[in-house]
Write a structure and sequence with these properties.
This protein has twelve helices and 23 strands. By secondary structure, the chain is an alpha+beta fold. Bound molecules: S-adenosylmethionine (SAM). Residues 1-58 form the TRAM domain.
């Protein structure tokens, strides 16, 4: 295989970035623009030892799964947001199921994993918007516009500001005035920011010159409350004429049918290396300044209310979050939520549940009615404060939160190594835990955390993941630590994109746990489950 060669390829798979994947002469080739089922002609652009990249030349026979009605002009302009925008929704769901299965087979070495039907979105969801407008958090990048002073004092007008999303595998911002995945409030706020920058000649952050003011805009929307928080991430100490921007956004958001409850500036000073390809949560600055309104917005999920701060994580698709959390409850073995009353005085089941990577406490609080105690661990302080407040708002008294890295906090509490440096009452409760819910960021869990969970001896592990590869890696380790894989349910939290969410149930293998505890390294065959 050589660069410049024209090859014919049947597309059999797709990457999470939306590239078609097929084989030519046994050689794996990535073809951007092609979808599963296409027969294409492609020109090789880069050739490695066993795989290569190509440019789509011609679709010889289009796939029956091709979707032609995706109503977005920015997809063809290169916006990298909707990687699966050319694939029918049903085909997306099948592809995501397949990807979860394959990762478990290839990375966790589970031969025939029990993969339940993916929980997809329905047409009637989300006030009839179905698989569209499902995101309650928009993250816009802002690119150069206005005037800038170059090194040496040269003043240059950089042209129109752009507010939108990165092009596929690039930091080029595709200017988007409309996005069918975002809430109308988010688009109204983004368009107001662009207008403000144009009118007031406000610069955007230029990663090449490491100059300019506005870097990004995050808009959080409470779908149930219509409350909106706008967070403008800047390279500086403030925004000139910021009150004008606040009123422009406020008006635009109100016209879209929402209420701007909070306007925040997040300060992120220029680093030497300029803008890196950002992980979702790295977008925020180090210091958040509440310029107008309240420091939190509120949302409602099922029977619970949640307050969310600028720096706190909150699941982005509320309709699917409810379904995901219901699945978590089911995997925890808790009763259904139908007659849920969080304030009920009825006897709780005797579960002690560890809610690891708990964010604003949402999953644990969703399970609190069936627990003796919820212990949440979370690294972001604002989220821990939110979690405590959320427990209070909902009248939940059986939840405690610890701020710190889960991989440091849990081993300390389980091992009792630093007695005196932590709450011994909580430590005692942690050691009684019988269920652990793990919901880490994309990178997955650190081995120390998984070892501590196994050391705690919980009967069930419910692992929620947004990256099947790190999920499979961690499951492989948990199997070695004496747990048995039961089943996985993928949940489509991110229609039209290549992102996959999945929830896994693992249960303790009693004989093997004892071996693990006593340090005997007997492999066993896993058939000795004395389990549940
Ligand atoms: C995918 S979110 C899950 C949040 C929550 N369970 C929910 O459903 O909304 C992952 C959370 O882990 C937190 N986090 C990241 N690294 C962490 C660590 N090492 N220890 C504890 N929490 C961490 C993040 O701040 C974030 O709130």
């Amino acid at each position: 295989m050589k660069k410049g060669m024209i090859v014919e390829i049947r597309i059999e798979d797709m990457s999470s970035q939306g590239q078609g994947i097929g084989k030519a002469d046994g050689f794996v080739v990535f073809v951007p623009g092609a979808v599963v089922g296409d027969l294409v002609r492609a020109e090789m652009t880069k050739v490695k030892k066993s795989y290569g990249f190509s440019r789509l030349v011609e679709i010889i026979k289009p796939s029956p799964y091709r979707f032609y009605d995706f109503d977005c002009e920015y997809l063809s302009k290169g916006c990298g947001g909707c990687q699966y925008g050319r694939l029918s929704y049903d085909a997306q769901l099948r592809l995501k199921e397949k990807q979860v299965r394959e990762k478990l087979q290839r990375i966790a070495y589970i031969q025939d994993p029990q993969v339940k039907d993916i929980i997809g979105m329905k047409e009637s969801d989300n006030e009839g918007n179905g698989t569209f407008r499902y995101r309650n958090k928009a993250q816009f990048h802002v690119s150069t516009g206005g005037v800038i002073t170059r090194k040496g004092g040269v003043v240059e007008n950089l042209g129109e500001p752009t507010v939108g999303f990165f092009r596929f595998k690039s930091h080029h911002v595709v200017d988007c005035e409309e996005c069918c995945l975002q809430s109308p409030a988010a688009m109204a706020a983004a368009n107001a920011l662009r207008r403000f920058m144009e009118e007031d000649n406000i610069t955007a952050w230029d990663p090449k010159w490491e100059k300019g003011l506005i870097r990004d805009l995050v808009v959080k929307t409470g779908f149930a409350t219509k409350e909106v928080m706008a967070i403008v991430i800047i390279n500086g100490n403030g925004i000139p004429n910021v009150q004008k921007l606040v009123s422009m956004m406020d008006e635009a958001v109100y016209d879209a049918g929402y209420y701007m409850e909070s306007f925040v500036i997040s300060v992120k000073k220029a680093g030497k290396s300029g803008r890196q390809l950002q992980a979702v949560n790295d977008i925020m600055g180090d210091k958040n300044i509440i310029v107008a309104g309240r420091p939190v917005i509120k949302d409602i999920l099922g029977p619970l209310e949640f307050e969310i701060s600028p720096a706190s994580f909150y699941q982005v698709n509320p309709v699917q979050t409810k379904r995901l959390y219901d699945k978590v409850r089911e995997y925890c073995g808790l009763k259904k939520h139908e007659n849920f009353d969080v304030c009920s005085e009825g006897p709780a089941e005797r579960h002690v549940i560890l809610d690891l990577y708990c964010g604003v406490g949402s999953i644990g609080l969703y399970c609190a009615d069936s627990a003796e105690m919820i212990i949440g661990i979370e690294a972001v302080k604002e989220a821990v404060v939110d979690a405590n407040r959320n427990a209070v708002i909902n009248g939940i008294v059986n939840a405690r939160y610890i701020c710190g890295k889960a991989e440091e906090v849990l081993p300390a509490y389980i091992g009792g190594k630093e007695e005196g440096t932590y709450d011994s009452e909580i430590a005692e409760t942690v050691r009684k835990a019988d269920i652990a819910i793990l919901d880490p960021p994309r990178a997955g869990c650190k081995p120390q955390l998984l070892e501590a969970v196994a050391e705690a001896g919980v009967e069930r592990i419910v692992y929620v993941s947004c990256d099947p590869a790190t999920l499979a890696r961690d499951i492989k380790f948990l199997l070695e630590l004496g747990y048995e894989f039961k089943e996985v349910t993928p949940v489509d939290m991110f229609p039209w994109t290549g992102n996959i969410e999945a929830v896994v149930l693992l249960s303790k293998l009693h004989a093997r746990r004892n071996e693990y505890r006593s340090g005997i390294k007997d492999e066993g065959d896993g058939s000795d489950s004395g389990g549940e």
